[in-house]
Amino acid sequence: MKTEDKGGPLYLDPKQPLALRVKDLIGRLTLEEKVSQMVFNSAAIGRLGIPEYNWWNECLHGVARAGVATVFPQAIGMAAAFDQDLLYRVGSVIADEARAKHHEFARHEDRGIYKGLTFWSPNINIFRDPRWGRGQETYGEDPYLTGRLAVAFIRGLQGEHPRYLKVAACAKHFAVHSGPEPLRHQFDAVVSKKDLRETYLPAFREAVKEAKVEAVMGAYNRVNGEPACASPTLLTKILRGEWGFTGHVVSDCGAIRDFHRHHKITSTPEESAALAVNNGCDLNCGEVFQHLLNAVEQGLINEETIDQALARLLKTRMKLGMFDPPEMVPYAAIPFERNDCAEHRALALEAARKAIVLLKNQDSLLPLNKEEIKTIAVIGPNADYKPSLLGNYSGLPSRYVTPLTGIRTAVGEEVEVLYAEGCKLNETQKRHWGELPTSGFAEALAVAARADVVILCLGLSPELEGEEGAAANSDAGGDRSTLNLPGVQEELCQALLATGKPVVLVLLNGSPLTINQAQEKVPAIIEAWYPGEEGGTALAEVLFGAYNPAGRLPVTFVQSVDQLPPFTDYRMEGRTYRYMTAEPLYPFGYGLSYTEFGYRNLCLNPQKVDSGNWEDITVSVEVENRGQRAGEEVVQVYVKDVEASVPGPRWALKGFQRIRLEAGATKQVKVTLDRRALAMFDQAGNCWLEPGQFIIYVGGQQPDERSRELTGKEVLAGELEVTGSAVRLED
Q: For the whole model, what pTM was predicted?
């Protein structure tokens, strides 16, 4: 059904209600035209003045794959900042650049892939196993941290306008998806209802219910037998039914084809397309939905169901202002000059600074005093390697600052900087003409011998870890079979330590490394992640004391893969800081500073609360900078249920704030705990607030033995009592 008014078609009238505009447009389309709008490269419909539109776009840590853009640290690095405000501001800047680029491209009639306003970011899967190559794309292993950062990032991307989205964000991959990469097209992730609700779904729940994310992307794998992109449990019961999601669902790329090719749950493309749409998947990144025409003829799906899916897609496009005059859409006026501007580069630098984690600083080797150093040796395969600034799903910086460049700029002409690559990232075999993987050691040792200090840049690169098919030199289809430093990097480190020169180890990587020997022998260790376009500047500022590091690990660094359950086991038992009982190399939430922070006067108000007459609990604590240098601290609040009726986490993060304190200053920090912060999940996946005793831990780290050993610090602990009877909470 189509209607007209004096001003023309209703779907082009911004004064009309959104639902009416969508209905009017659908009524003007043939079935073939409807289907053409349900694939990622939606066709133009000339007779209605609708241009082609490509839904596929990425902005994990900056506008990706669309030319020059500001490149922020990889997502795992931004997670290490433990800073919700930072993620919001980064998201807002990315959306500004997205708008600037999109409208400029459209003026040149370029509407191709990676040029639209629908972004398939963020990736909020739980980094449950450090071998997963795409863990770098996530916010780490903790559901609470992931959820809070996801909400901030999504809000930054989508903007605050009452009518229009700045861009449309997409929470992916829904759900229970974190490797192994080579098995993803046929793998069935078997998960208990408790683990599903307690670990794998909370961040998606917050993205939908709190951030109002516009889109959700399904995963490749099955979940308990159901393909994620056609799961009645995930898409119908939970996402739309329980959480009230009103946006659209997009498949991962090629995931619908997997139904019949690899999962073998359907026999034909028509069956696969119908299964997906009937169960709530609206958009196909792929081509299988083109078979919906035949599926209708075969009686596998009706046109009304197709209309329902299409309505969700058209609503998103209208919320982006695509059917309105540009002068009505404030975001359409963002000029192209906002892309890659100086202000955005400054934010990339701030993010890179905040992402850096100081893992070790024996005898306060850092920060280095430039006035006392004559020669620095910068050595290693990541010292001047641009890809290791970026990570995967990145844009193209207009200027790269590698560690070598950043250090040279920071010390100027007064200090000599010598450079040697030392070795390749992952070579272990003799080359064709006989060159050994250790052939660069001699040069490295020569420059080290002539230096006062060695800055050794090791780690990984997006060629060694990432998505299936993208990480060309991965030894496990994108994943890693070992967590050790690849190639002969370990041998290079040991050779340089043998010179007796002080060594600062800098890691550039997107996932944990088992650097046990380095932790034992290297005096200072910095985790820089894939730090983005200004990574070298941020690193130099930390090395020479212009910036005091405060990042915290968003993922546990284990001592060995032997501490991990099998990769394909999706049970949380033995995984992440919440359930791992083995001693890690570095714990979740760990990170050092150049100054000393103290905690006192922990107060819980109230200390006793009735489950049926709930009032939120205010956790307050005074934090003092007891050192001689200004710095930032990440205040962390963990909750332990002492009397849970079913086994649960040892303790779990339920609050955090990143604060800055001048030397000698004190600040009171307050964190609010709601009912869900104290809730537990039973084996059926139900969420309960139970009466009993709880311990609230507050400090700059976890309350575990390894953190105490590494920092020499304790955390504060307060007791909280919940009275009354068990109350089931809505999930």
A: 0.98
